[in-house]
Specification:
The radius of gyration is 39 Å and the shape is rod-shaped. A five-stranded antiparallel sheet has the order 2-1-5-4-3, with helices on both faces. α1 (2-52) runs parallel beside α2 (68-114). The chain has helices at residues 2-52, 68-114, 134-143, 168-183, 228-242, and strands at residues 119-124, 129-132, 190-196, 202-211, 217-226. By secondary structure, the chain is an alpha+beta fold.
């Protein structure tokens, strides 16, 4: 030990310098490895996560410290993000176009229905009112128990249930008849029923099918007639004949 100490004494600065150089080299190597295998992928992952929540993500920034494989991965991920942006834009455009066409068809149907002298109500399969004409609004106003207060709005309105006026079992039975006729291949199946409202009015309903694009039943149309006066007139005539 004495000999080693005696030998190291004059070379101690060189030994310390060598150790420092080696430590610096090891630190540089560790930093390079960290940047290449951990830091660069982590920065790429952070960029990708930030762009996943954006509707129009900007291109990925070049990843410093990564190798060629990581840069290729960044290019591929960026291409996928841009493809997703284009697909979302296409879907949004198709949805907007579909909504525009639906509104056009609804406006055309509403214009056609407004010209009809008969009450017309269009419902989905759940019985929710999708469309009705002015004649139907006036008829339901006449059926209202508080016409001056609600004006029939408690009975009919977009999104309201038709079952506020008609018994659910009557409508379900008519729908079953239409489904059976559709299954037998009928081109324009329909059903009819008569009901008494809460206000004592007698209504005759003609139900027609609204078919989806695949031909299945998607809703129904009701053509309504108030036959209370006709019934009362016929009953009076029968009374006179029998009397």
């Amino acid at each position: 030990r004495a000999r080693i100490a005696e030998w190291l004494a004059p070379h101690l600065p060189l030994v310390v310098l060598t150790m420092l150089v080696m430590a610096g080299g090891v630190a540089a190597l560790v930093n390079w490895a960290w940047q290449r295998w951990i830091g660069a992928p982590a920065r790429l992952l952070e960029q990708v996560r930030a762009r996943l929540v954006l509707d129009e993500p900007p291109p990925l920034e070049p990843v410093a410290g990564g190798d060629g494989t990581l840069r290729g991965l960044a290019i591929a991920v960026d291409a996928l993000l841009q493809n997703r942006r284009r697909l979302r834009a296409d879907v949004a455009a198709q949805v907007a176009e579909g909504s525009r066409r639906v509104e056009q068809e609804r406006a055309r149907l509403a214009a056609l229905m407004s010209e009809l002298t008969q009450s017309v109500v269009v419902c989905n399969l759940d019985g929710r009112v999708l469309l009705y004409n002015q004649r139907a609004r006036l008829q339901f106003k006449a059926l209202s128990e508080a016409p001056q207060l609600a004006g029939g709005a408690e009975l009919i309105g977009l999104g309201r249930s038709i079952y506020a006026v008609f018994d659910r079992q009557l409508v379900a039975h008519a729908l079953d008849n239409i489904r059976q006729r559709l299954a037998r291949g009928a081109a324009a199946p329909s059903a009819q029923f008569v009901t008494v409202t809460k206000s004592g009015q007698l209504l005759r309903a003609q139900m027609a099918a609204v078919r989806d694009e695949d031909g299945s039943l998607g809703g129904f149309v009701l053509l309504l007639d108030n036959i209370t006066r006709d019934y009362e007139r016929d009953a009076a005539q029968d009374t006179l004949l029998l009397g």
